[in-house]
Amino acid sequence: MSKENNKSKTRLSYSNRRKLSYAVFLVPFLAGFFLLFLGIYINSFWYSLNELEMKGIGGFALHYVGLENYQFAIATDPTFVSNIRATVGAMLPNIIMAILYSLMIAVILNAKFKGRTVFRSIFFIPVILATGFMARADNLSAVFSQQWNSMASDGTIEAVANGLIDTGDIRDFFMNLSFSPQLAGFVIGAVDQIFNIVNISGVQMLIFLAGLQSISPSIYEAADIDGCSPWEKFWLITFPMISPIIVVNVIYTIVDTFTDSENIIMTQIRQQNTTSMGIASAMAWFYFATIAICIAVVTWVISRYVHYQQKD
Amino acid sequence: MKAATATMKFQRSRKIDRYWIVTKFKNFFARLFIYALLIIISFIIVFPIISKLSASFMSVDDMYDRTVNFIPKHPNIDIYRTVLDDLNFVQTALKSFFVSIICALPQTIICACTGYALAKMKSKFTTFVMILVILTIIVPPQVLMVPLYLKFRFFDVLGIVKLFTGSEMNLMNSSWPLVILSITGTGFKNGIYIFLMRQFYKGVPEELEEAAAIDGCSVFKTYFKIILPISIPMMVTIFILSFAWQWTDTFYSGIFFNSDEVLSNAVFVIRSAFSDAPGAGEFYKTTVLQTGVLTAIIPLIIMYIFLQRKIIAGIERSGIVG
């Protein structure tokens, strides 16, 4: 009797054993987080509570100042908080447009039609450009162009047609095409907007596509037999089944628009870093907290409509 | 009586006929609309690339000729020759390929496993890990540049390395930093991959695991025999993203490698674009640079064309989900 009791104490229960097996899957990530990144995060957070004093080459001293850096960032700096407000405000339409667009394109590209592979490959291009690979080349070209222009204005080199470089810019194309300046302005504005949305939603489209592929065709077959219209099929099957993936894409879009290195606040933090690392760290942490709150609010709102195939 | 039913039947069939024409008509317009939409957006995406492509085939004369617009008068591949030569293309591309593979493969597998545990383990602990994952998503790698450099320049895990070799390891100019980041699921955008896999596995019905558990499968066996095959479309997507981003990455490879070692960095220090040789004007330099970028992204697009079939191939297997 007592022997059996001992046995049940030393042995894990079935469900605990399974939990332990699941925990093994988490080991790599946890190891990476705690051994590589936790120290970096703590350091950076500690900097935000201190003032850094540079001492010669590579050396620095820390003076603990408490929340003073945060106070400076939030209360004293005139632009920081208003910039954050502007970014958050600009984010919402961006998210909605990006999600709607990428879901629509993914649904279209998921259907069978002629030339699907070609279109899929074309819509994959924004994913490649998401790292800013081509933008960097364009920036460098602009530098060349400036050098050239300054040389040309010096009269050292004869100025030549400035057409080729700007052909990369789609706006010029429409400038040449359209008939009235108003129409041109409208088309350019629309194209700019579309261009922007297309460029920020390539990844989301790809993720949606994989999500759509994971929905069982048998559900659609059943719906066909019941006489569902495509519209009903979308709202009653595709949408609920894809809803967990929508959460991923919303978070991706939020983080992507917030932490884009061209973003005003990221630029401001980078500039601040050259003058005061303490304040820059404080700004960064305050900004990350804002992103976290945005994510928490948005996912809380969305997750009430998310459908997981799970027993409660 | 009989005649009446016959007429009714006839009328009904005509009704169906008309309805059939209406749907056909609607379908035609829906198709037209979809094609128009796809073509317009494709045009917006492809246009900058087409213009770069056309410039890359131009001769120097064409570049300075005002009448040349898109279609070069004297097409040649001189610029490609220069670029491939300057880049040392085959060697650099192979190195890029190697680096991308050793990043993408472990990232795909580790992120899938982590996501699976986060989706299926019923414990408070997962909420805590989830918060850590979200933290890694939020903090962009750009702000970690200096600490990451220091971490891998003087690499040490809990003082163990120092204990044995007497000093920290220098992992710069090797693939080890990227490998370490990848096998721990903390590389570029890995947080979002983990989150994606978690959401995907949350959508997998629990009956699958229950049935396997009743048959005596362990968690690992269930995962690798049953769950992994149905998650192929998602994993291929993650593999594609991870590969493409490593291939075009300038941030991590900028820290860990010499500037001309991998393709993504080599194109930005390409010799002909920065030489001050006579005749190397602005257009020429720009075109060389853009052509370098083109040669770097074309292999990726080809890879995608082959891999996207795998996303589709997942259908038959993924039939179980839902």
Spatial gap, N to C terminus of chain B: 50 Å
The CATH first-level class of chain A comes to Mainly Alpha
Rg of chain B is 28 Å
Per DSSP E runs of 2 or more residues, the count of β-strands of chain A stands at 2
Number of helical segments with 4 or more residues of chain B: 16
| Global outline of chain A | globular
Helix/strand order of chain A: HHEEHHHHHHHHHHHH
Low-pLDDT residue spans of chain B = 314-322
Q: Supply the CATH architecture of chain A.
A: Orthogonal Bundle
Helix content range of chain B: over 70%
The number of domains of chain A is 1
Oligomerization status of the protein chains = heterodimer
Going by CATH, the homologous superfamily of the largest domain in chain B would be MetI-like
Mean pLDDT of chain B, to the nearest integer, reads 82
Question: Helix and strand string of chain B, N-terminal first?
Answer: HHHHHHHHHHHHHHHH
Q: Mean of residue pLDDT of chain A? A: 78
Strand content of chain A: under 5%
Q: What's the CATH architecture name of the largest domain in chain B?
A: Orthogonal Bundle
CATH topology of the largest domain in chain B: MetI-like fold
Text of the CATH class of the largest domain in chain B:
Mainly Alpha
Task: Describe what this molecule looks like in 3D.
Chain A is mainly alpha-helical and about 300 residues long. Chain A has a single domain, classed as Orthogonal Bundle (MetI-like fold). Chain A is built from 14 helices and 2 strands. In chain A, strands 1-2 form a two-stranded antiparallel ribbon. The longest helix of chain A has about 35 residues. Chain B has about 325 residues and is an all-alpha fold. Chain B folds into 2 domains: about 55 residues; about 240 residues, MetI-like fold, CATH 1.10.3720.10. Helices cover about 75% and strands about 0% of the residues of chain B. Chain B has 16 helices and no strands. In chain B, helix 4 crosses helix 12, helix 9 runs antiparallel to helix 12 and helix 10 packs across helix 11. The interface between A and B is large, with 99 and 115 residues.
